[in-house]
Amino acid sequence: MNRDIAVKLLRRHVKNQNMIKHSLASEAVMRALAEKFGEDKMRWGTAGLLHDLDVEMTDADPRRHGLETAALLKDHDIDQEIIDAIEMHNEEATGKKRETLMQHALAAGETITGLITATALVYPDKKLSSVKTKSITKRMKEKAFAASVNRDTIRECEKIDIPLKEFAEISLNAMRGISEKLGL
Predict the structure, then answer these.
(1) CATH for the 3-182 domain, from 3.90.1150, 1.10.3210, 1.10.390, 1.10.287
(2) What is the DSSP string of 42-97?
(3) How many CB atoms lie within 10 A of CB 57?
(4) What is the dihedral angle through the alpha carbons of 103, 108, 110, 115, rounded to the nearest 10 degrees?
(5) Helices 41-50 and 3-13: angle between axes, nearest 10 degrees
(6) What is the full per-residue pLDDT of the chain (184 aa) written as tens digits?
C-alpha cells in the first residue's frame, strides 16, 4: 500500500485531529526506527500510520482495539508482518506477548509519542524544538505526568537493544522532522 492510500484510509476511519497527529507522529518514529535497524521505512511507517485505525470505532476498548484494524487491513494490500504488529501494539486484545522487532518498536514508538507531546505542551512555546531528550527521560520517572502513558511499554525499547535515552532522542528527532504537521 502506498502512503497516499494509507493516509486516505486513516482519514476515512479517524476523524479526531489529535489522533491523526498521533498517527503521523507514530509513522515518523517508526520510519526513524526502521532506518536505525536497516528495515524498510515505508513498511514500518505504514505500521505507525495505521496502528490506531479502529480507535474511534472501538472507542479504544482494550478488548477490541487493534483487532478491528487487523480485520480492516486484511482487505488491503498490507504485509502480514505489519498487520501482526498493529494487532500486537495492544497485547490485551490478543492475549499474546509481543515477540518481533517490529511489534516491540511499534508499541514503544507509538507510546513515547504521547510522552513527547505532553512534554512539549508544558513548555511556554509548546514546541518540540524546545524539548530536550533529558526532559523526556526525566518525565518517564514522574508517574503523575501524562499518567495514561504506559512507561513499561516505552521501556520495551530496551528489548530491541535501544537504551531509553537513545530511544527518546530518536523519537524526538523524528517528531521534530514533522513538527509543522503536528502543530508543535
Answers:
(1) 1.10.3210
(2) HHHHHHHHHTTTTTTTTTT-TTTTTHHHHHHHTTSS--HHHHHHHHHTSHHHHTS-
(3) 15
(4) 170
(5) 10
(6) 999 999 999 999 999 999 999 999 999 999 999 999 999 999 999 999 999 999 999 999 999 999 999 999 998 989 999 999 999 999 999 999 999 999 999 999 999 999 999 999 999 999 999 999 999 999 999 999 999 999 999 999 999 999 999 999 999 999 999 999 999 9
CB-facing half-sphere around the CA of 164: CA atoms within 13 A:
17
HSE-up of residue 133 (Cα within 13 Å, Cβ side): 11
Of 118, 109, 116, 119, which is closest to residue 153 (Cα–Cα)?
Answer: 109
- DSSP assigned state of 150: -
Residue 122's φ and ψ, nearest 5 degrees, are -90, -10
**pTM, 2 dp:** 0.97
Contact assessment for residue 51 and residue 86, using Cβ atoms and an 8 Å cutoff: yes
Question: Which residues, including other chains, have CB under 8 Å from residue 38's CB and lie 6 or more apart?
Answer: none
